[in-house]
Known about the structure:
Layout: H1 2-11, H2 25-39, E1 42-45, H3 53-62, E2 66-71, E3 76-84, E4 96-100, E5 106-112, E6 117-119, H4 128-131, H5 133-152, E7 158-161, H6 163-175, E8 182-185, E9 195-197, H7 205-222, H8 237-269, E10 274-277, H9 280-312
Parallel strand pairs: 7-8
Antiparallel strand pairs: 1-10, 2-3, 2-6, 3-4, 4-5, 7-9
Amino acid sequence: MSFAVNYFDYFTGTYIKEEQNEISNEEIKYIKNIACLSCEQFYYKNLPEDLTSQIIELALFYRNNLCFVKDNNTDRVVLATYIPNGNFNIYLKPDEVKILYLNGLTLYDNYKYDDIVPIRDNIMGIPPILCIKDYIQQLTIADKTFDITMFNLRLPMIFKGSQEMKAQLMKLYDKMNKFEPVIFTNSKGFKDVTESFNFTPSVNPIDIYDVIKELKNQALQTVGVYSDTGKKERLLVSEVSSQNDFVDMIYQSKLRNRKEAINLCNKKFGTEIIIEELYQDVQKQNALETHLQEKAKQVKESEDIDDEIDISS
């Protein structure tokens, strides 16, 4: 859970910088992109004062054990976190909980669990940030590998020449954005003519870019966001359909859990909160277009093959 809390604390301004919890710029970039798309799928109307859609969705993305509860200090419903505090029944439901504001301050030390309305992103109550943790780490590694590979392709990496030529080359490369080559020298055996050897990376930068794109798409799909499959020309229609079905199941789970919590909150506290879907129609349309385009392409390829067979015969 520390991974999720560290990110949440970072983006709420309470992140304490520690060596073991350092967040790289690459991680921040991908977390921002994925979290933004995930947290903008739903919009809430008629929320209590000071509570916004952004707060609800960000909290659900980074935290578990969230709930709506009546704050007797302000006489309004607030979004808070709870910690089981007391005995559990045979189905592991606590009889009492401790209620904390999102800033960590205590609201109630002992509060009946039946008097709160839990709200979850999914039926398991697992914060989405934990589900994409490995994707973020892999994206960070791939991103750095891509940068290194592109850097190495800019200029020759290995030289052979005299000591005098080495000094001149080092000065030249120092002016070119501190780029440092590998230079072999031998004052006796090498001539004053410098020989260069181009560095050939073990992987094509385009392949690395495809890996980055695919990892990002998989991370988005994991949080219920339709995304480009990256290599549609290599996928069958059934495979594209399977991916979209998987994403839709995750999305519907998110929607169902939110609706159940909102409906119970309205019933228990007399609120009139409404949840709306923002991009689902657009996502479904994009998915449909993907199916139609892929199917049309396969039909055309099949016709071309038939034409070639006719010509050859």
